[in-house]
Amino acid sequence: MDKSNGRVLLTGGSGFIASHVLDTLLDAGFQVVVTARSEEKGETIVESVKPHQLSYAVVEDIAKEGAFDHVFQTQAPFDYVVHTASPYHLNVQDPVKEFLDPAIKGTTGVLRSIKAHGPTVKRLVITSSSAAILNPGNHPEVYDETCWAPTTYEDAINHPAKNGYRASKVLAEKAAWAFVENEKPNFDLAVINCTYVFGPIQRKLASLEAMNTSNHRVRNMVQGKNKDGLDPTAPVFTWVDVRDVALAHLRAMTVPKAGGNRFYVAGSYFSNKQIADVIRERFPSLADRLPADAVDDLPGDVFRFNNRKSREVLGIEYTSLEKCITDTVGSILAVFPDV
Ligand SMILES: NC(=O)c1ccc[n+]([C@@H]2O[C@H](COP(=O)([O-])OP(=O)(O)OC[C@H]3O[C@@H](n4cnc5c(N)ncnc54)[C@H](OP(=O)(O)O)[C@@H]3O)[C@@H](O)[C@H]2O)c1
Domain NAD-dependent epimerase/dehydratase, which positions (predicted)? Predict the structure, then answer.
């Protein structure tokens, strides 16, 4: 590998958000090692961005004890670690195995491995979520980085579909802050609490079925699955473009005063009707796949949020919904023209 701005370990390299974080890191001149669950996935990622400064390491299951140790033992030194890997899907059967263990043990595992085997690491950036902030049952006056979702481990066990993912994010993030507080490692921590993320599909997406969860509603509209009526937008009415999220990760890594902070990364409000309107206007050939008489269900008294810290410290200028949805649909049609 050639000279660079530094070496970064990026976990979950096959993911949607990681795909864009990777582009942003490479464009900024960093050498990157991604983790992937198999040789095949790792090779695919590296092939897709040649001739950049990129390699991969296999981490089959982030929930396993010491899962990341071998990466540091064989690929160090690293200057930064960005931990995006964590499950996000809607078909939960076993909340412990599918959500809580990989999220919580994966996060504490990264922290332990850095402390034990990564003495050169200056900062860890973790992809948390607005799921670790929001409390839909009792909204505060304004959401910001001081807010924490009240969801517990027991909530996840009792209502896996409703609380499994939410609990995994809030408990993993709390575990990370507790580790830093208790262990006082040589590196610091910054956390990205992004809200619902839309944007161009990830590199080398194998099929429309394999698409990341948060882009499903756009995919479904393009496929005509909502022709007879849009799904309710609730409970989350805020969204952000994946390219803004990727830039937020880069800046959280490099801006000195970002260390020790959470960042609520949320662009603006949306409803499914607003997404459908953009698709209809920008892709007239898809108009007959969309409902003609959809109602905008964005509540007049929707919860308020404050994203000032992400704008002022990270310098994020949020992308418009129109551009994001246009680019997302364009990226789907470019790869799957017969959608
Ligand atoms: N998309 C959103 O709207 C959104 C919003 C807020 C926060 N987030 C957070 O952003 C991060 C990335 O999400 P995404 O939307 O990019 O989802 P994604 O495309 O499904 O990516 C998830 C990544 O985590 C990896 N992973 C999951 N479980 C694993 C395990 N047990 N062992 C090893 N790797 C594992 C996946 O590997 P495989 O590809 O091999 O399965 C994939 O690389 C997550 O932490 C998520 O909670 C997402």
Answer: 8-265
CA–centroid distance, residue 86 to ligand 1 (Å): 4
Write out pLDDT tens, residues 5-56.
899 999 999 999 999 999 999 999 999 999 999 999 999 999 999 777 899 9
Q: What is the CATH number of domain 7-204+237-268+304-318?
A: 3.40.50.720
| Residue bearing the CA closest to ligand 1, atom 11 | 84
Please give the structure tokens belonging to residue 263: 């960042």
What residue ranges do the domains of the chain occupy? 7-204+237-268+304-318
Q: Residue 303 C-alpha to ligand 1 middle, in angstroms?
A: 26
Q: Is the dihedral of CA 313, 145, 109, 55 positive or negative?
A: negative
| 59 Cα distance to chain centroid | 18
pTM of the model: 0.98
Query: ∠ CA(144), CA(148), CA(153), 5° rounding?
Result: 155
Residues with CB under 6 A from ligand 1: 12, 14-18, 37, 41, 59, 61-63, 84-88, 102, 127, 129, 169, 194, 196-197, 212, 214
